[in-house]
């Protein structure tokens, strides 16, 4: 979208939050809503796949620690279902090797919790710009 010769980012960005921790999910969703996101929620891998098939989110925030599965193990299935989605992996207990594994799988970023909202915003803004170009 262009306005007066300048590129303007779309205001609505559909984001799927795959997270089972209720307290964290609320804080994250409040931040995303303030940034203009339309929020979809899933607590399990099955719910995430169903939401992805129904809504084709632009961005997926995937928790490594999920009920019933490991987010890193679930990542390839989610990416195969929706290869154009930008996926950000989040983890409470992480290591460099986990971050590398996530990036090799195709994550656009790997964030430790508690989340650095400035870094999350930078990552999201870069993905919004990429989608705007496409």
Overview of this structure, please?
This protein has 134 residues and is an alpha/beta fold. The chain has one domain: 3-Layer(aba) Sandwich (Rossmann fold). The chain starts with a strand and ends with a helix. The N terminus is likely disordered.
What order do the helices and strands come in, and which of them pair?
Blueprint: E1 2-3, E2 6-7, E3 13-18, H1 22-34, E4 37-42, H2 45-55, E5 59-63, E6 65-66, E7 69-70, H3 71-81, E8 86-91, H4 96-105, E9 109-112, H5 117-133
Parallel strand pairs: 3-4, 3-5, 5-8, 8-9
Antiparallel strand pairs: 1-2, 6-7
Helix pairs in contact: 2-3
> How many domains?
1
Helix/strand/pairing category: alpha/beta
Q: How would you state the average pLDDT, rounded?
A: 84
Beginning-to-end CA distance, first to last residue: 11 Å
Q: Provide the CATH topology.
A: Rossmann fold
- Please trace the helix and strand order, writing H or E for each element: EEEHEHEEEHEHEH
**Uncertain residue segments:** 1-10
Characterize the main sheet. 5 strands, parallel
According to CATH, the homologous superfamily is Response regulator
Rounded to an integer in angstroms, the radius of gyration calculated over CA atoms is 14 Å
Which architecture would the CATH scheme give at its second level?
3-Layer(aba) Sandwich
Oligomer kind: single chain
| Beta-strand content | 25-35%
* Strand order across the largest sheet: 4-3-5-8-9
Described by the principal axes of the CA atoms, the overall outline is globular
Number of helices: 5
């Amino acid at each position: 979208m262009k306005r007066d010769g300048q590129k303007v980012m779309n205001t609505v960005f559909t984001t799927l939050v795959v997270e089972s921790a209720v307290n964290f999910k609320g804080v994250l969703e409040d931040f995303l809503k303030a940034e203009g996101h339309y929020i979809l929620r899933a607590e399990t891998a099955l719910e995430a796949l169903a939401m992805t098939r129904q809504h084709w989110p632009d961005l997926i925030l995937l928790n490594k620690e999920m009920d019933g599965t490991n987010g890193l193990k679930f990542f390839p299935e989610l990416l195969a279902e929706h290869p154009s989605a930008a996926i950000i992996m989040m983890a409470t207990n992480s290591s460099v090797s986990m971050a590398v594994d996530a990036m090799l799988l195709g994550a656009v970023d790997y964030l430790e919790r508690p989340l650095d909202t400035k870094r999350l915003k930078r990552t999201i803004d870069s993905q919004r710009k990429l989608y705007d170009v496409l």
